[in-house]
Design brief:
374 residues, alpha+beta, Protein Transport Mog1p, Chain A, 2 domains, 9 strands, 12% strand
Length: 374
């Protein structure tokens, strides 16, 4: 086996395509030899490095990781974990990716192997929340509960999240993974129903912008990857209102705030503004964070969940340092709106988001808009 692996590793850069290597690896795993795929992945990483520029390496390594992580059977889980946990491979980004692959394809009982041995704490933390997103009771799953409820990872950023889904999280857009690739839906675009009209003579109180850099960064957390890793634009702003704003006047108020995303909106077609359930706002933010924009793959489920909550909490005005329960209560007390328009600010391709949150006292209006294009 070592000779065959060395031959593949040595000849990889000269290949015009990797179909033959794919066939060999899939054949070995189908015959129950998952160790071959893991050994090949480790050997490739040792030779080319996890950040290697050889496209053949990147393609084959991803194939091997997908093959082991999405093929049923505890033996495949064990070998996927051995490959991803080797000294040659260790990478926080790969840990997040692997956790998504494993959680989407295996029973929780088979994944208990991740919570023993050399598996990194990062992969374990991500796997816990990937399972939570899929409705698994990690606090009552043998082999997982001991680690998930232990205090030793209390300072990990993901520990802020609850170990069970809230009512707001029932509509998470989760990817479907297979050996050949991944797919997911995009819950973006203009509101489809429940629209509110722009009222020409609506009484709109004066507004003063109160945006701070910290608030803008927090509100944009879920879509930050669109701007950092793709072609995205973001507008995140907060306004204090001189008087309480009536719900039916929100569409008109949005047009008076000087928002870049709504510049010249309404000249031909009025913007679409609709009341949203808080769960739908969370769904949109989670999809943006977890699956990414036009040219990137996002943060995957665990960190996507965290980013969605950070954005949602900041839009709702939840104080920094709030617990997840406190943030959720604040979110539920707000009135939520989705908006869309045909202004040139939005790319109008597939990745357009417009959200607004009106505080319980109706004196604070927070707005988040984002767009991306390929």
């Amino acid at each position: 086996m070592a000779d065959e692996i060395q031959k593949i590793v040595t000849g990889l850069p000269d290949l015009k395509d990797v179909t033959g290597v794919r066939a060999v690896a899939e054949g070995r795993v189908a015959q129950g030899d998952a160790a071959f795929a893991a050994d090949l992945g480790i050997a490739l990483a040792r030779t080319y490095g996890t950040g290697g520029q050889v496209w053949q390496y990147r393609s084959v390594f991803d194939l091997l990781l997908r093959l082991l992580s999405t093929t049923a059977g505890p033996g495949n889980v064990t070998e996927a974990l051995r490959m991803i946990s080797s000294d040659e491979v260790t990478s926080r980004k790969l840990d997040r990716y692997t956790a998504s692959l494993l959680a989407s394809s295996h029973e929780a009982a088979d994944l208990a192997a991740a919570f023993t041995g050399r598996t990194s704490e990062e992969l374990r933390a991500c796997l816990v929340h990937e399972l939570v997103l899929r409705g698994v009771d990690v606090q009552d799953t043998p082999g997982i509960t001991g680690w998930a409820t232990s205090p030793h990872w209390s300072h990990h950023p993901l520990r802020w999240l609850p170990l069970a889904l809230s009512d707001l999280e029932g509509t998470a857009v989760l990817p479907s993974h297979s050996i050949r690739g991944s797919s997911h839906s995009l819950p973006y675009g203009r509101p489809k129903s429940g629209e509110l009209a722009v009222i020409a003579d609506a009484r709109v109180p004066s507004a003063e912008e109160t945006t701070t850099q910290a608030a803008a960064t927090a509100m944009a957390k879920a879509v930050a990857n669109w701007a950092e890793e793709s072609n995205g634009r973001i507008e995140a702003r907060v306004f204090g209102l001189a008087e309480p704003l009536d719900a039916e006047s929100v569409p008109t108020a949005l047009l008076t705030l000087g928002l870049e995303c709504l510049h010249e909106a309404g000249r031909t077609t009025p913007p679409s503004v609709a009341v949203l359930p808080p769960a739908q706002a969370w769904e949109v933010l989670f999809a943006a964070a977890a699956t990414g924009g036009a040219y990137n793959s996002g943060s995957y489920g665990a960190y996507g969940r965290l980013a969605a909550w950070r954005s949602l909490a900041a839009l709702a005005g939840s104080p920094e340092g709030s617990t997840s329960a406190e943030a959720e209560a604040q979110v539920l007390d707000c009135a939520w709106y989705g908006f869309g328009t045909d202004t040139q600010w939005f790319d109008q391709v597939a990745w357009d988001i417009g959200l607004a949150a009106l505080s319980p006292g109706r004196r604070r209006l927070a707005v988040l808009a984002a767009t991306d294009t390929d």
